[in-house]
Amino acid sequence: MSEVGNLDLSQPIDLNDPGASAFLGDLQGNILKSHGRRKTTNLFVTFTGEVADTKALLASLAADGTITSAAEQKKQRDRKENGQPGPKGEAPGEETATFLFLSAQGYSYIGETAPEDEPFQKGMGRADADLGDPAQSAWDEPFNAPSEAPIHALLILANENSSSLDKAASDMQERIVSAGIRVVGKIDGRGLKNGNGHDVEHFGYVDGISQPLLTCSDVQEASDNATAANAKADSLGAPKSVKPFDPSFSPEATVLVPDPLSPKGGFGSFFVFRQLEQNVDGFKKAEAELGKLLPKGQEERAGAMIVGRFEDGTPVARYGEEIGPIGPKGTPDNHFSYDIDPDGEKCPFQAHIRKTNPRGDVERQFGAGPEAERRVLFPRRGVTYGSRETHDDDVLNEDASHPSGGVGLLFMAYNKDIARQFEFMQRDWANSPTFVTGNPGIDPIIGQSGQSWPENHGGGAKVVHDFHGFVRMKGGEYFFAPSLSGLQAL
Ligand code: HEM
Ligand code: MN
Question: Where in this protein does the record put region Disordered (predicted)?
Fold first, then answer.
């Protein structure tokens, strides 16, 4: 356990604790808790100027408050909740959050020591991690040319209001170009929601429900939701887990990395960015084909077995075929583990959320302690990209078009240790046909290396539907989000 002052970093952090304020003022936002905006501009940049000018510009972004600390993010949220304007007169809820990330190539350009982590130092394209990614030369711009146009840094700007966001992004571009920092790629995140107001991804499923939680307020909220979920389950006769998923995680073990640039012991975090294109048309057709194998009226359960949740977020392990989707208005149920479905009869072992968070399966199958699987989990901070024909700009309707490309997920995640967390989850869980037991096949959403769907959802190997390639990796990079004191020391 390490402490900063009297702050215990091995427990979720109380954002209101005065003893945490120095720590929170030095840590970038979005690490402990999501910035919460649905619209983002992601600027991938190459350094071309003098090293001294580059460093001075990066330092100034930290010094003048442009980069949003965890403390400032909390203040913005409070102002939004109280309907108060921002300090620059921004309408309530329309303050821009800004985050800065450096790649290993970025550290090397400015001649500074990069934090230690093997995948980070090699870069996503060169990491011989065996993730099943296409070769880097086949990726999209700006990710495919590490020698001509290396990505040295990433700037993420976020705002609920697109015109405020566009203004902030063009101000930022003007400011950085003066130091020879060139934008080589600009990708807009454009969050979607469903009719219940929940965030959804392009296949139409509620996303962002289950996360390792790193702040006291998030843990408290999850505990309230758990109580409500159990009451609902009781009223519907759904089973209760003896050992439900515990969403409370240690920030120190999950995301926090000592920042080598910081003169005062500040922290940063590794950041995984992957552009994952989704073939909605192909996926929806395959999902419908699979649905035809199920009893009439239960077609929706096909998708639920692919993802592990119905489209509305209802976990299929708990509500299965007897109850089906429960149409949550509040937060979808996350208070369960697979002790209610140990043999994968309701939620197959290959379902996306079971592959990526086995909730006790590793302990049941291998006799390992709970940490053996919890140490792999990490907070996801992704947002969807690309546009669809929808009635409203942000709401994904039933009759929205089904594009075969051009839309997808900007997968983003903070890690303490990329090899132990993101790479392990992708390679050893999602891509492994034999994880967690028998031969369930690979993750039908993100498994790379030949996706298929065994007819017998438990252990059989007969392929009836090919789920290959509905999610395509278009490129990405590993970054580090330095502390504010570290940036200011440049
Ligand atoms: C959960 C979709 C990529 C890891 C989910 C959920 C959906 C989803 C619908 C359920 C919401 C929730 O439980 O929070 C997708 C899509 C992807 C994608 C469409 C690609 C286009 C990834 C990748 C990873 C990943 C690349 C990691 C390698 C997870 C994890 C969960 C999750 C850890 C939570 C599982 C749990 O705690 O039960 N995803 N995902 N996802 N996904 Fe993905
Ligand atoms: Mn459907």
Answer: 69-94
